[in-house]
Amino acid sequence: MSRRKRRGRPVAILDARHHQAITLLAEGRLSYGEIADNIGIDRRTLHRWRMRKDFDRELRKVMARNEREWRRTMQSRLRLRSAHDMTWFFDAVGTV
């Protein structure tokens, strides 16, 4: 039994447009259509890119990096150092 070779075009490596799409997708502010228009591709092309394993892997890396950055920023902002900080926090949250 021999293995069948895959048919179709070979998959090209990720270029600048792919990385720009990954950045915009990771931000989560724009729709597929807006991202596609911004990059200059068709919305269906962006959808096909999302199905690529290498594209999805890179997108997950960027999203994880963004989440770690956000968590680190929030931890430093919410660090309560004094009674004044605690009062400010509870006033901001609305807790009595």
Beta fraction of the residues? under 5%
Distance between the termini: 74 Å
Rg result = 21 Å
- The shape is elongated
| Count of extended strands | 0
Low-confidence blocks of residues:
none
- What's the tally of helices? 5
Main sheet? none
Helix content: 55-70%
Structural class: mainly alpha
> Helix and strand succession?
HHHHH
The assembly state of the depicted protein chains is single chain
Nearest-integer average pLDDT: 86
Outline the fold blueprint:
Blueprint: H1 16-27, H2 32-39, H3 43-50, H4 53-77, H5 83-93
Summarize the structure.
The chain is mainly alpha-helical and 96 residues long. 67% of the residues lie in helices and 0% in strands.
Name the descriptors.
96 residues, elongated, 5 helices, 67% helix, mainly alpha
Can you walk through the features of this model?
The chain is an all-alpha fold and about 100 residues long. The protein has helices spanning about 15-25, 30-40, 45-50, 55-75, 85-95. The longest helix has 25 residues, at about 55-75. It starts with 15 loop residues before the first helix and ends with a helix.
